[in-house]
Amino acid sequence: MTAEEAVLKRHSVRAYEDREIPDEIVRALEEEVAAVNAEGKLAVRLVREEPRAFRSFLARYGKFSGVKNYFAMAGLPEKGLSGRVGYFGERLVLRAQELGLNTCWAALSFGKGSAKKAARLAKGEKLVCVIALGYGKTQGVPHKSKSFAAVAKADDPPVWFRKGVDCALLAPTAVNQQKFFFTLTGENKVRAEQKGGFYGQIDLGIVKYHFEIGAGKENFVWEE
């Protein structure tokens, strides 16, 4: 499965089967976690067979069930941490999808104390959020999306820019707010902004990763 195919197949899933993840898939996930931690300067942990974090009232309120595997998205509390968590966390989400698993981002709907303990974070590391992981009882459903014009601006946009925006519109965002905006500011320069909302910097990291998949990293540069 390609990254583009994973984007199309991925939908948020909150209810999971009582099914163990095979060792070979765990190894592939651990390899991706190691790569993400190195490239993103993060401290992500893959937590397995640990159901306590999703037995809280908040998890039930968020309609999660059967979750006992998750990525604990953590790092040192430095500038840009939330954006890196979003960007590299979505890389993990799509890798999991390629491996036949389902996922769902969770920023509030889990027991943070239980997750911190299970992740065994080092002193000074901050748990930002988690990503539920496993075999879903369903494959989820597509979310409603805004129009291209509502989230992007470009005079006579090139094909790669349109593809990038279309891919970003398929990304998960908090409460499906899609409060992001892409502007083509030069022939191949793109500005990405978050327009408020809950967990805006995490969302911006997620949609930037999707944009790169759709547009092709070789076709543009991000405006700093």
Outline the structure in words.
The chain has helices at residues 3-9, 23-40, 57-61, 81-98, 112-119, 148-151, 159-168, 200-215, and strands spanning 45-47, 69-75, 102-106, 126-134, 152-153, 180-184, 189-194, 221-222. It has 224 residues and is an alpha/beta fold. It has two domains: 3-134, NADH Oxidase; 148-216, NADH Oxidase (3-Layer(aba) Sandwich), CATH 3.40.109. The chain has a four-stranded antiparallel sheet, with helices on both faces. Strands 5-6-7-8 form a four-stranded mixed sheet. Helix 7 (159-168) links the parallel strand 5 (152-153) and strand 6 (180-184). The chain is globular, with a radius of gyration of 17 Å.
DSSP summary, beta strand count: 8
Major sheet details: 4 strands, antiparallel
Number of helices: 8
User: What is the top-level CATH class of the largest domain?
Assistant: Alpha Beta
Topology as a string of helices (H) and strands (E): HHEHEHEHEHEHEEHE
Proper CATH architecture of the largest domain? 3-Layer(aba) Sandwich
Strand order, main sheet: write it out. Answer: 1-2-4-3
Can you tell me the overall shape? Answer: globular
Domain module count = 2
Query: Structural class from helices and strands?
Result: alpha/beta
